Amino acid sequence: MPEGLEAELYAGAAAQLVGHQIISIDVDDRCADSMQLATLIGRDIIGVKRHGKRVALVIDGAQLELYFAMTGRLIVNGVAPIPALEYGPSTERKEWDRLVMTTSKGSLRVNDPRRWARFTLDPDWSMLGIDLMADACDLQKALGEHRHRTVSVKALLLDQRVIAGLGNMLADEILFGSDIDPRRQFSSLTDDEFERLSQQISLTVSELGARGGSHKGALHPGLRTARAQCPLDGAPLQRVTLAGRTAIFCSQHQR
DNA sequence: CGGCATGTTTCGCC
DNA sequence: AGGCGAAACATGCC
Known about the structure:
Layout: H1 4-14, E1 22-27, H2 34-38, E2 45-51, E3 54-59, E4 62-67, E5 73-76, E6 97-103, E7 107-111, E8 118-121, E9 130-131, H3 136-144, H4 153-158, E10 163-164, H5 168-177, H6 191-211, H7 221-225, E11 237-242, E12 245-250
Parallel strand pairs: 9-10
Antiparallel strand pairs: 1-6, 2-3, 3-4, 4-8, 5-7, 6-7, 11-12
Helix pairs in contact: 3-6, 5-6
This protein binds a DNA duplex through residues 1-3, 5-6, 53, 67-71, 85-90, 96, 113-116, 118, 149-151, 155, 158, 160, 167-170, 213-215, 221, 224-225, 241-246.
């Protein structure tokens, strides 16, 4: 999915439906409780909110979370803010529609081949950490509460309870930009490294946000697959598995 | 055809 | 008890 930056695009698109009344909801039963969602019919969409990678339609008296997992795409009024996801399918099939909502003046659907998308009524977001787009000082403060943790830095960045919205690519970009090896224990960072990392989060998030997405960084998808070289110093890029995900980093300048 | 993919939750094991 | 790593989930693509 969509990391936080992409979720922001989805939230913006969904906002087109604010002020509309929900006319119908058609949902894949494996992705949601269709009986619950049926209670939303006839009610008004009064807002949209996002925290981390999570997006929710604020409905008169309820909230409906749209969770996209890795391959869920949002289409609002027939237009997809992200036409094709990295690592997603190259085509779109009708049977991959997991949620189809029609409103008084528009429509919204979520298309997800992998069927990991989830639609939850009145979701509990209390476990989510600070949003990735928060103020840099607040991000640093939030990170500081975990300085004793022995997990790898990469795993910590991916932990949604610490910072909500960072995904695999953003985390790699942040570590690349702060010259830190993703395998390092978070607790082993020096004060200088900790500060560098904290600052880099906001830099990376705003820069890639301006460029259009998590896939627009130095370690863009083209470099993630093949044996590639560091765009900064030409050293070979390394691939390791951390926290169940592939981490890409430069063997030369990330220490 | 085997392996891998912008992710979260669950299950064991320290 | 709490924290960590690996597996599970489902399916398309290279």
